[in-house]
Request: fold
Amino acid sequence: MSKKTATLWILSLLAVLMLSHYGTALAGTGWTVNVSHDLNGGLWPAGQSIAPYQLSAPLGQSMATDSLSKEQMIQPQKPGAVFEGWGVLFTDLYGNIVYDGRDTNWDLNHPFDYYAKDPREMNCLMVARWKEGQQASETWTVNVTHQLKNGVWPQGKEIEPYQLSAPVGQSMAASSLSKEQMVLPEKPDGVFKGWGVLFTDTDGNIIYDGRNNVWDLNHPFDYYPDNPRHMECLMVAIWEGPTYEDTLWSVNVSHLLRGGQWPIGKRIEPYRIIAPIGQSMPYNLSQEQMMQPVKPDGVFKGWSVLFYDAKSADIVYDGRDTMWDLNFPFDYYPENPREMDCLMIANWEGGPGPEQPVGDSWKVNVSHDLNGGAWQPGKGINPYWISAPVGQSMDGSSLIQEQLFIPQKPSSVFKGWGVLFTDASNGNVIYDGRNTAWDLNHPFDFYPDNPREMNCVMVAIWEGGAPAIETWKVNVTHDLNGGTWPAGQQIDPYWISAPVGQSMVPGSLGKEQTILPLKPSAIFKGWGVLFTDASNGNVIYDGRSNIWDLNHPFDFYPDNPREMNCVMVAIWEGGAPAIDTWKVNVTHDLNGGTWPAGQWIDPYWISALAGQSMAPGSLSKEQVIQPQKAGAVFKGWGVLFTDASNGNVIYDGRSNVWDLNHPFDFYPDNPREMNCVMIANWQ
Reply:
């Protein structure tokens, strides 16, 4: 072997070894930051925390502007100190310091920039900075939640409920609503216009109702001395466009471990699954199949389920006594609410032993004293226990059952649950709060001086001897006036009520806003109303020719009967032909690749008027989110079009890269509904 040949052979071998060692990095097209937190002597607020997570962006681009939104919303606490902000410490994967900014507050509105000299993967430790020796000033707070009005969050970008606060006398910070500026809900048949707001006090009394007006997100909430110190703000999505097609149903899944814990470093966060109306959920419950909770003195047997209406909290299905088949996801039923919560409840074999339940943990055994009341048939709560690691409060959903199952007592009004804590070893009283309603959204906090095992009797509080509140009632039915309900959707007769002297609550006619009738060659204009006396049929008000404002349900009038019938009559504009549309259901085949961490594209559909091509931008998701494959370069998407009714192939372009700037054209001979599988092409 010549010297030149030997040199080339050695260089080739080194290249192979480097490619083997760094193959992923060389093939990759992005950079990542692993974010964790050092609270520097502080603690997360009860029921809130930020788990370690990873950010990523394409090479040459900075991280997304909302990357640090969690840190903007959740701030640690420390007795005798005021939180000032987050410092940062960047290191490479070997622990070498890249940048040390622990002594300076990082601007959370300006996440991490790209620098070519930096490693492709770094760790960022966010360090809490405190102003010691000071007590936090008196504050006012607003708990922010969202109502999407039949819209959905973009996949992986849901805005969880959060709390804002500011010193009394000061307005909320200018960036308080930055999440709502960056994450917009989506709705196939509507254009998002902005957020309306509904402010209430903690008892539900309305302070300000601005649900029909778009709130200025650049001007968050002002301080008013007359307002309560603690308020709730429901941000309501406002849509423009037709609402005749309620296209999706959803299930919000959370977990109740009943004394168990997730394995160290693993957990299933609450998540949401969606499907088109009329279709069952497309996914099995793979997370629950792969990740099971643990309990030292019990064997995990499986998950049972409890479904309830996400808006009203009414129980839809109680399957707490049966193991759910995880290979058989949730089916669609037309009578179910469009949005439901599903609490998955861990089932164990074997009871708690005399020793501590989980290593260094603390435990509360929960039972109930109905105080003269009774559970509603089939809606009781058996004794159970919950636990958490020493130093941590109980999980925020621990008392979800008490929120859902309410006891009853004749001639009394249920006011809430009081609590009596006692030492499990000797019965000594630790805390007696039987006369005060416990905040069920804020389960039990950890106190170092308390026993590691306690009993908690939850005692029903009644407003006793009080006569039932006098109410008025409207029985609602529908006259479709020659029309029909959409396939798989209808509004059954129902009734609504309110205390005498009060109008019906806003949202009472929500069903009529989302489910609209159809009629050939006619356009639905709205609902007229005919009110009659339920006792004798006498007409009280005839508004069958006028469209009723569904955002303004029925008002109370003293002269009206206490019970009325209301027939809602469909109003049509005849002579207009029905709109003819075509539709494409889009799914993806990654062809051996995977989605980037924290990013993916769920199945979706797009539509257009017959004769028109799909709108530009219809394939924007595919332009932004690209799959990855070790040792390969992504070239683009091929397509396979099939007839949705029979699976026949219409066009096979799997080997060619589709132009994403030019979505699908209309061809008269094609079916009105097609499936399109987008196939990743690799080099």
User: Anything to note?
Assistant: Helices lie at 3-27, 69-73, 178-182, 286-290, 400-404, 510-514, 620-624. The chain has a mean pLDDT of 82. The chain is about 10% helix and 35% strand.
